[in-house]
Amino acid sequence: MPLSKVALIGSFRRHNYGRVQSALRIFEAAGLEVTSPSGADIASGDQFVRFTTDLAHRTDAEIQTATLERIYSADAVYVVTGENGYVGRTTCYEIGRVIQRRQPLYFSEYPDDIPVHIESGHVVMPEEFVLRFVTNREPLAWLFETGTGELFDGERRLAGWEQLARNKEELRP
Q: FRET label pair with 47: which of 89, 135, 153, 158, CA 20 to 30 Å apart?
């Protein structure tokens, strides 16, 4: 399945939001639909950022749930880190949810504040992401799809990968 939609997550704080908007522009120029964020201006928030497009009557939890739905609708998720690999609490939560879903996940640089193993092939600048996955149509991969050892085996068990493989085997003629 070719890549057509990507979601951006990461540090959306005001001092880093320019990096997010830059990645958004690069992806849109390559013909990708960015499912989240919309690129709207930041209205408020330090720990949880709200955009001018967010409805004022919605709680942070309601906004986060709607955001996760947009993230889940993407073919891949791209994490735009802040200075020194900062991602923050909300992004750590989103990364965990994305890993559990076995959704392809890529990073602008190694995150500093989350204890997750990330293969070097999953750390790419936006331009390289476009070259690999849009231009060259390299297949997207879940973070723990390949690799050997207890770390990879453990992550695959946690995400139900083995059960998924067994179910596929049972369905084969």
A: 158
